[in-house]
Amino acid sequence: MKQIHLITPFMRSHLKDTLIAAYRSMNIVLHPIMFKDEMVEFDEPWILPLVIPMDSKECTVFMPGCFKRNWFIKNEEIIDGDYYVTADDDDMYEDGVFDAIKQMDDDIIIISLKRGYQIPANTVPIRQYPTWPLRAHPDWVKIGMISAQQSFVKGRIFKQHFHNEKSHNFDGELAVYHKEAGEQINYRPDLFALFNYYEPGRWVKNDRAIMRKVSIIIPVIREDSAKLCSKAIRENAGTPIDQYEIVSAIDSDGVGCPKMVKSLTENTEHDLVMFLGDDTEPEKDFLKHAIQSMDSLPDGWGVVGLNTQDDRVDNGNPIAHWLAHKKMLEYIPGGSFFSTEYKHCWCDDELKDIADELGRWVWCEKSRIKHNHPVNQTAEYDDGYQKAYSDDFQTHDFKIYCSRKRKRMKARYGTKLAVAIPLTDERIYREFFFSFVKVITEYMSSLVKAGKSISLDVLMPDFPCQIDHARNNLVHQALLTGCTHILMMDSDQIYNTTNMIDKLLAHDKPVIGARVHRRYPPFDALLLRGEIGKLYQVPDDEIKNKDGTFKTEISVDYTGTGCILYDMKIFNDILPGRWFELTTGEQGQPVGEDINFCKKLGERKIPIVVDCSIDIKHLTLLAADWGTYKLFQKIMGGNKNGIGI
Q: Which of 133, 216, 296, 377 is deepest in the core (most CB within 10 A)?
């Protein structure tokens, strides 16, 4: 059975008995490390003290605690398979943390850290640590956002790294090193260390002193329901009545929820704003719990999702109602919690997205909101609901959501690319896989070399399906994630061209395809002009230059979608409706989803351009490309295109 070793630079002798009493039942090995002049006796077998043969005044390094930690690493036996964690002699851990860690076998485990309720009075500036917790999450592994008490490290790794005796940020530096070195790390945000637990005043909970004031806004179209909501607020807030205000107004002009939220917010007094619908009845201590969750965010600001009743899902709706700090308005285009571009839907999704992107979103399970709503069969589907959830409103709002998210991603990354693989079954070709990895690796490398963030989503259908459904599903995923472009890469092809993605993006066209050949005779390039039923192939002399090289840009009316890059704005603008469809032509001939989509592009005057220099081999019994096409022509004695679309 693996053991946990708690390495503690010890100097507060008055806490000796307190620490022993607290840790005794936790079944760990405690290693208090002391200088000679700090030595006290420990007489329990689970405590293995280490005395450094020098007085504390002889240690001249900036961080004596790190000197003690390093002395332990240099001089004590460290067991490879055991866990080692360092904590100061005024820290503590919640019950059950060590038992949970012992059940794991990861190289490194990072837990969360609670930091008390208030900064003690008269604390020197360097020790005025904030009270918001540090979360166990990869995004929080950075200097100033992680502390030594959070990292449990296997002995074989722990003994390889010393702690920086010259830096106050030694713990953050070491955690960042482990992450960037690719160490295997398990993040457990549900387990907590307790920072400076024995620091006088830090863990004294004074609800009245730390309670923050909140403005609760309620847009009203159902006056009787709104009265029930206000009554429930007063009965169930769990805070003194002077800690909140209720700001409500009747939407007499029918302007809708987003505009009402903006107007009501402008008339609030406090920095914290809670949104509740007039069809809600908040339950016991809802406001108290929401404020506590807000306090858990960095610097105490962000967005808290409330636990709104929704009988369609197990855990409630986390976004319908919320508590938000007005500082969020600085990060929302338009400066309103709900953009007034929306009619009713999707604006709450956007608020959560932006808070998530900032690392300032948390869900408060304990802040429960009863929702008297048709989805819960507790309200009639009245005129207000019918208007809010009409097809027109939902389509309009989805387009707004996707458009605004795409703009945010473009501002953040420049290009956020979705690479989409429209799988129709579970199998892929080995040749495709290796060429696909090459294409993706080259693109990621080019981003890194240019000093850009890697903003790339690799998408596959939610489940294998018919090709048109697969492509539509991929487009929908890309819209939801805010991608600026989508590259369709069929899985029955080989992609040979070096830096293919960069070359496609460099064209800066709404649609830019690659030269893809038909995978059956006559193996011609799918570069077509005309109209459905009367299509003809682009002549060979338009595809190649006189010197035999392929042209990098030609215009076509129709092309295959096996390797093609789209600006996502195209798909957003075509809503509502399906993008890709398999149909039948006027003569009864099948018309593929690629040809049909090209027709829709043509109807909207969106040009289709193809870079013929990009080399794609279409896999069949052989890899069909330009050479296959020309060989077939030679065998057949002429140009046998056989186009019947």
A: 216
Angle between helices 391-413 and 467-480 (to 10 degrees): 70
pTM recorded for the entire structure? 0.70
- End-to-end, the C-alpha distance of the chain in Å comes to 69
Report pLDDT digits (tens) over 330-350.
999 999 999 999 999 999 999
Residue 288 to residue 435: CA distance in whole angstroms: 55
Residue 574, pLDDT above cutoff 90: no
Helix (H, G, I), strand (E, B) or coil at 68: helix
Minimal CA–CA distance to 145: which of 112, 106, 101, 189? 112
- Whether the CA torsion 476, 480, 485, 487 is positive or negative: it is negative
* Sequence-ordered strand ranges (E) for 532-622: 534-537, 554-556, 558-559, 563-567, 583-584, 590-591, 608-619
Q: How confident is the model at residue 635 (pLDDT cuts 50, 70, 90)?
A: confident
Q: Per residue in 157-211, pLDDT tens?
A: 999 999 999 999 999 999 999 999 999 999 999 999 999 999 888 887 654 435 6
**Parallel, antiparallel, or unpaired for β 50-52 and 29-35?**
parallel
Name the residue with tokens 């837990």: 111
CA separation (Å) from 103 to 29, 46, 266, 312? 16, 20, 51, 35
Exposed / middle / buried, residue 366 (Cβ in 10 Å: 0-12, 13-18, 19+): middle
